[in-house]
Specification:
Subunit structure: Component of a multi-subunit COQ enzyme complex, composed of at least COQ3, COQ4, COQ5, COQ6, COQ7 and COQ9.
Strand content: 15-25%
Distance between the termini: 44 Å
GO molecular function, one term: 2-methoxy-6-polyprenyl-1,4-benzoquinol methyltransferase activity
Order of helices and strands: HHHEEHHHEHEHEEHEHHHEE
Bound molecules: S-adenosylmethionine
CATH superfamily of the largest domain: Vaccinia Virus protein VP39
Number of helices: 12
Radius of gyration: 20 Å
CATH topology of the largest domain: Rossmann fold
GO biological process, one term: methylation
Number of strands: 9
CATH architecture of the largest domain: 3-Layer(aba) Sandwich
Strand order of the largest sheet: 5-4-3-6-7-9-8
Subcellular location: Mitochondrion inner membrane
Number of domains: 2
Largest sheet: 7 strands, mixed
Pathway: Cofactor biosynthesis; ubiquinone biosynthesis
Shape: globular
């Protein structure tokens, strides 16, 4: 109830004042006018792009973003990354080499924040066509029903739609009560975790659901390791992506959030530390940079 009221106030102010400091100060006064006590005003905060918001507010704001972009999500991915996201996703899936021909059971894969199913379909294609494994199955889990609905529609164009190799689960990655402990062989999350409110909670949940020896694998935007290239990349991401969002999807704000959320995501090393803190072993360097660090793949193994 409280967070709904706050959300309403903050949204109304955002509409009137944009994201200015003035809007935030005014919101603070508005909370006081509503009689919220000091403790309630000092709820824990987190990032929503470059904004600082109450933790309780972030989930709803992220849900609004992805409900707004769901229908244009796949087309926009191609435009924003000039098609490069396909190469990154291909690399990610090949590096995991899902499926094994000698097993009757196949792998149990949980694709968290799976959205419109890009990773899940690639995983099943790889298991089937490369490893001749017809038993590996993927559960696409996402907090957003609109993204899952797009995934469900797309699945009907694949050999896996309406089969027991593919299922859908709506849920928050930070708490997955219907997923049994020690039941998953491979946990994947692609371009999802930077949107989570409590990333450490999601990592702990990944650790819980994976079998001993199971693999956590994350593909996420990261931090570019060349100053010159970084300047070009920042110009593109902050200049072009919100504009493309506005022109193609009629939604500048959501794409502004997407580029800001990339900036707020921990560095490659800091994220590796978070994975280790959740209990995972991180073999080798623990991550692989793609396109000079625009994206990176992090992996962790649950100890046997
Ligand atoms: C950028 S999309 C990525 C979709 C897909 N994995 C891909 O690579 O194309 C991010 C997804 O994260 C989902 N998401 C955000 N917060 C979440 C949470 N707390 N738990 C589960 N999914 C979440 C969003 O609904 C959205 O579908």
């Amino acid at each position: 109830m409280l967070s709904t009221t706050r959300l309403g106030v903050t949204r109304a102010l955002r509409g009137q004042f944009g994201r200015s400091h003035a809007a935030r100060s005014f919101a603070q006064s508005a909370y006081q006018c509503q009689g919220l006590n000091e403790g309630q005003q000092h709820d824990r905060t987190t990032h929503f792009g470059f904004e600082t918001v109450a933790e309780a507010e972030k989930e709803g704001r992220v849900r609004d973003v992805f409900s707004s972009v769901a229908a244009s999500y796949d087309r926009m991915n191609d435009l924003m990354s000039l098609g490069i996201h396909r190469l990154w996703k291909g690399n990610f899936v090949r590096s995991l080499n899902p499926g094994r021909a000698d097993s009757e059971k196949g792998w149990n894969i949980l694709d968290i924040a799976g959205g419109t199913g890009d990773i899940a379909f690639r995983m099943l294609d790889h298991a089937t066509n490369i490893n001749q494994d017809m038993n590996t199955r993927v559960t696409i889990s996402d907090i957003n029903p609109d993204m899952l609905e797009e995934g469900r529609k797309r699945s009907l164009q694949t050999p896996y739609g309406n089969t027991d190799r593919l299922s859908f689960l709506q849920g928050n990655a930070e708490s997955l009560p219907t997923v049994e402990s020690n039941s998953v062989d491979l946990y994947t999350v692609a371009f999802g975790i930077r949107n989570f409110t409590d990333k450490d909670a999601a990592l702990r949940e990944a650790f819980r659901v994976l079998k001993p020896g199971g693999v956590f694998a994350c593909l996420e935007f990261s931090h570019v390791n060349s100053a010159v290239f970084n300047a070009v990349y920042k110009r593109w991401s902050f200049g072009a992506i919100p504009l493309i969002g506005q022109l193609v999807a009629g939604d500048r704000d959501s794409y502004q959030y997407l580029v800001e959320s990339i900036e707020q995501f921990p560095t490659q090393e800091a994220f590796k530390d978070m994975i280790q803190n959740a209990g995972f072993l991180t073999p080798g360097q623990g991550y692989e940079n793609l396109s000079m660090g625009i994206a990176s793949i992090h992996k962790g193994v649950k100890p046997v």
